């Protein structure tokens, strides 16, 4: 999966969880999926529609009622669901799951398998703002998923960021390098 697809996928809070549930063979109807995510109906519906637009899930033809359709993974969605399942299973607490639902958490971790400067991460995520990247890095550092090191060997000291602990496990699950 390329970084742009990952950014689009994680732009909705419940997309990863829905894919992971479908990967775990939870029935593809809205009621079981909604109950398993603990999402609000509005947020769940937005994430479900988003996954359909991305071509990761589709209505299962011949199954379900028109008002209560059944969904299934597409071939592209099956690949994404495998990655989503690996990512979701790394989270151990509710705080970690909440952090995974944030838009930029997974894409930032995907790019920080090796130490990178702020500007390199920003160029890898072309549409992220400085403020959003800075906020994400601070949150990930507070969760101990990113380590910030200051390099003083050069005239101007500069920080680098690298995924550690659970952040590195998520990086490996995504399998993307900058």
From TrEMBL:
Domain HTH hxlR-type: start-end pairs: 100-152
Highest taxon above the source species: Bacteria
InterPro entries assigned to the protein according to its UniProt record, in alphabetical order: HTH_HxlR, WH-like_DNA-bd_sf, WH_DNA-bd_sf
UniProt cross-references to Pfam families, sorted A to Z: HxlR
Keyword field contains DNA-binding: yes
Keywords of this entry: DNA-binding, Transcription, Transcription regulation
Designated name of the protein: Transcriptional regulator
The species this protein was found in: Ruegeria atlantica
Phylogenetic classification of the source organism: Bacteria, Pseudomonadati, Pseudomonadota, Alphaproteobacteria, Rhodobacterales
């Amino acid at each position: 999966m390329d970084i742009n697809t990952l950014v689009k996928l994680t732009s909705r809070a419940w997309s990863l969880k829905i894919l992971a549930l479908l990967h775990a063979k939870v029935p593809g109807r809205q009621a079981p999926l909604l109950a398993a995510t603990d999402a609000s109906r509005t947020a769940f519906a937005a994430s479900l529609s988003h996954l359909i637009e991305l071509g990761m899930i589709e209505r299962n033809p011949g199954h379900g009622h028109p008002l209560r359709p059944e969904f299934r993974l597409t071939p592209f969605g099956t690949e994404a669901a495998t990655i989503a399942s690996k990512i979701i299973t790394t989270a151990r607490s509710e705080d970690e799951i909440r952090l995974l639902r944030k838009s930029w958490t997974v894409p930032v971790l995907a790019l920080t398998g090796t130490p990178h400067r702020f500007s390199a991460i920003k160029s890898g995520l072309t549409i992220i703002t400085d403020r959003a990247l800075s906020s994400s890095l601070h949150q990930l550092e507070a969760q101990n998923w990113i380590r910030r090191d200051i390099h003083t060997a050069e005239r101007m000291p500069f920080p680098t960021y690298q995924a550690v602990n659970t952040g590195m496990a998520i990086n490996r699950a995504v399998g993307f390098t900058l």
